[in-house]
From TrEMBL:
UniProt name for this protein: Peptide/nickel transport system substrate-binding protein
Extent of the signal sequence: none
Residue ranges of every copy of the Solute-binding protein family domain listed in the record: 79-443
Localization annotation: Periplasm
InterPro entries on file: Peptide/Ni-bd (IPR030678), SBP_5 (IPR039424), SBP_5_dom (IPR000914)
Classification via PANTHER family: PERIPLASMIC BINDING COMPONENT OF ABC TRANSPORTER
Primary subcellular site in the record, as a coarse category: periplasm
C-alpha cells in the first residue's frame, strides 16, 4: 500500500500510481496547506508558456506566470491589469505604451520592462504553435526587437504593422503566449540558441502564484508557492495527480483522498449534487460541439441541406437526456463568455420544415452519408441521436467512431463527409473563432492557411469580408456590433451545425474555496483558493 507521505510528497519523489491504486488507498484528510487535485493530465507536451498550447498545460502555465493583462471573467468586454498598470494607444492606433506595476519573479527579482520586451520578443523568435496570436500584428523575428522596446524600467512600447484596435491587441496579449518570463534565468539556461526552451519545458521562471516543483508526464505535477508572488491564501503546494477514470476521481473525492476532482461526467455530477460534503464550481468554457458538412460532397453542398440538418436536430432532447450537466445548447460560432457573443438559439427541431427543405434541394428521397465522431463519451451517444434525427428526414447516416486524433487527422485532410467534433477557441477575442470559421481565402488543397472552414471546403467571400471588417474596426463598441451581425449570418448561411457549448465543473470538498474556472483553460486558477 502507498503511504500517505509518498502520495503527498510530489511528482519528483512519487512513483507512478494508477488510478486503481489511488482509488483503493485510504488516506486521512489532506493537509490544510496542500491542495490535492485529481485530473487527466495526458495532453501536455510543454510547460514553456511560449510553446505549450494544450488545455491542461495552459492551465498549469497560467498558475505559474503573469501577463500584462488578463481576461475579465465577470465582464468579457474588458481586460484586467496584471503586470501592466495602464496602457494607451497613439493617435494612429499603431504605437501602444504600457506602464508596469510592481511585481516579482519567484527568484525575488523585480519584473522590469526589459523582461516584458524580452518575453514578447522570445515568443515571436521561437515561433512555436501559439505565436500566431501575436505575430498577426506584423511582428517577425527580424523586426521584433525594433517594434517591442523597453523605454525605461517601467515602460514598454509595442508598434504594430497596421492600425489596430486596442481591445483586439489586449485580448491577444491576455493569452499565455503573452506570459512574462524572467530574462536572466531563462538565458542562463539557454542551450544552442534555444532561448531556454528545453529548460523551460520542465521548469518555470515566472511571477505567478506558484512555481513548478516537478512534472512527470501522465503522472503528476507539483506546484510550490511563489513566496514573492500574488497568492495570499494558506496553500503552500498544489499537487495534481493524473487520474483517468472519472468514477475513481469521484470515489477519491468522497473519501477525502483528494480535495478536487476535475473530470467528472454527468453521471457522477448527478450523484454529487446532493452530497453535502461537495461544492460544484461550474463554468461554460470556450469549447463548441458541432457537425461539419464537407462541401466536397454534392449533396452536402446545397444550402437547403445545411438548413435541413439544423432544423432536424433535437438540441434540447440531447442536452436533457445525454449531456445535462456537461453541455448547454449553443448555436453561435462565438462561445458564451466572450465579448459580443450572440446567445440566441434560433434552431429547434422541426421535422416537417426540414423535410420541405430537403425536397426544395431535390433530395426528397434522402441520401446516404458517413458521420465521423470521437470514440469518447458523450460523442457516441450524441452520434446515435443525430443518426435518428437525420434519419427522420431521409438522411441515412452511417456512424464511424475513432479516437480524437484520428477524427481530427481525417478532417484536416478533408477526408470526412460529415463529422461530429469539438472546437476550442485559441484566445480571448471574437476574431479567434471568426477567423477560422469565416476567413478562407484559398480553398485549394495546397493552401498555405487551412482554417477550420477550409477543412470542410467552405469558402464564402462575403463572410470573409465581414469578418475582416469586424477584426479591423477601431471602435470597440462598433466592432462588437459587427461581430454580432456576423454570427447571425453564419448561423443561417454556413455548413456547420453548432449544437452545444461545454460546461466544466470542479467538484470540491466543502473546506476548499476560491477555485476559479475560466472561459479559456488559462483562466483556470488557484490564485484565490484556500482550505479551512
Amino acid at each position: 500500500m502507498v503511504s500517505r507521505r509518498n502520495f503527498l510528497i510530489g511528482g519528483a519523489a512519487v512513483p507512478f500510481l494508477s488510478y486503481l491504486e489511488l482509488a483503493e488507498t485510504a488516506f486521512a484528510a489532506t493537509p490544510k496547506d496542500i491542495l490535492v487535485v485529481a485530473q487527466q493530465l495526458d495532453n501536455m507536451t510543454s510547460l514553456d508558456p511560449h510553446e505549450g498550447f494544450e488545455a491542461v498545460g495552459g492551465e498549469m502555465i497560467s498558475n505559474m506566470y503573469q501577463k500584462l493583462v488578463r481576461a475579465n471573467s465577470d465582464n468579457p468586454d474588458t481586460v484586467l491589469p496584471v503586470i501592466a498598470a495602464s496602457w494607451e494607444a497613439d493617435a494612429d492606433n499603431k504605437v501602444f505604451t504600457f506602464k508596469l506595476a510592481d511585481a516579482k519573479f519567484a527568484s525575488g527579482a523585480a519584473v522590469t520592462a526589459d523582461d516584458v520586451a524580452f518575453s514578447l520578443q522570445r515568443a515571436i523568435k521561437m515561433n512555436k504553435s501559439p505565436a500566431f496570436i501575436i505575430n498577426q500584428f506584423g511582428f517577425t523575428a527580424e523586426n521584433v526587437e525594433a517594434r517591442i522596446v523597453a523605454k525605461d524600467e517601467k515602460t514598454v512600447t509595442l508598434t504594430t504593422e497596421a492600425p489596430t484596435a486596442i481591445s483586439f491587441l489586449l485580448f491577444c496579449l491576455s493569452a499565455n503566449i503573452g506570459a512574462i518570463v524572467e530574462k536572466k534565468t531563462v538565458l542562463e539556461n539557454e542551450v544552442n540558441g534555444d532561448l531556454g526552451n528545453a529548460w523551460l519545458q520542465k521548469n518555470s521562471a515566472g511571477s505567478g502564484p506558484f512555481k513548478l516543483q516537478a512534472w512527470k508526464a501522465s503522472e503528476s505535477i507539483a506546484l510550490a508557492l511563489n513566496e514573492h508572488g500574488p497568492y495570499k491564501g494558506n496553500l503552500k503546494r498544489v499537487i495534481i495527480r493524473h487520474v483517468v477514470d472519472p468514477s475513481s476521481q469521484m470515489l477519491m473525492l468522497q473519501k477525502g483522498d483528494v480535495d478536487i476532482a476535475r473530470d467528472l461526467t454527468s453521471e457522477q455530477l448527478k450523484a454529487l449534487q446532493s452530497d453535502e460534503n461537495v461544492t460544484l464550481v461550474r463554468k461554460q468554457i470556450a469549447s463548441l460541439v458541432l457537425i461539419s458538412l464537407n462541401q466536397n460532397n454534392a449533396n452536402l453542398a446545397k444550402p437547403q441541406v445545411w438548413q435541413a440538418v439544423k432544423w432536424a436536430l433535437d438540441y434540447e432532447g440531447m442536452q436533457k437526456n445525454i449531456v445535462p450537466l456537461t453541455h448547454v445548447v449553443h448555436q453561435s460560432m462565438e462561445p458564451t463568455g466572450f465579448p459580443g457573443t450572440v446567445t440566441e438559439t434560433p434552431f429547434k427541431q422541426d421535422i416537417e420544415k426540414a423535410k420541405a427543405l430537403m425536397a426544395e434541394a431535390g433530395l426528397a428521397d434522402g441520401f446516404d452519408i458517413t458521420l465521423d465522431h470521437y470514440a469518447a463519451q458523450p460523442y457516441p451517444d450524441l452520434a446515435q441521436a443525430i443518426q435518428a434525427n437525420l434519419g427522420a428526414i431521409g438522411i441515412r447516416v452511417k456512424l464511424q467512431s475513432a479516437e480524437n486524433r484520428q477524427v481530427l487527422t481525417k478532417m484536416r485532410a478533408r477526408g470526412h463527409e460529415m463529422a461530429l467534433s469539438a472546437w476550442g477557441t485559441d484566445y480571448f477575442d471574437p476574431n479567434s473563432n471568426a477567423e477560422v470559421f469565416c476567413i478562407n481565402k484559398d480553398n485549394s488543397d495546397d493552401a498555405k492557411k487551412k482554417p477550420f472552414a477550409w477543412r470542410s471546403s467552405f469558402k464564402n467571400d462575403e463572410l470573409t469580408g465581414k469578418a475582416e471588417a469586424a477584426r479591423d474596426e477601431k471602435d470597440p463598441a462598433k466592432r462588437l456590433e459587427l461581430y454580432e451581425a456576423l454570427q447571425r449570418e453564419f448561423m443561417e448561411n454556413s455548413p456547420f451545425a453548432i449544437m452545444f457549448q461545454t460546461t466544466k465543473t470542479a467538484a470540491c470538498r466543502k473546506n476548499v474555496s476560491g477555485v476559479t474556472i475560466g472561459v479559456l483553460s488559462e483562466g483556470n486558477t488557484y490564485l484565490e483558493t484556500s482550505k479551512s
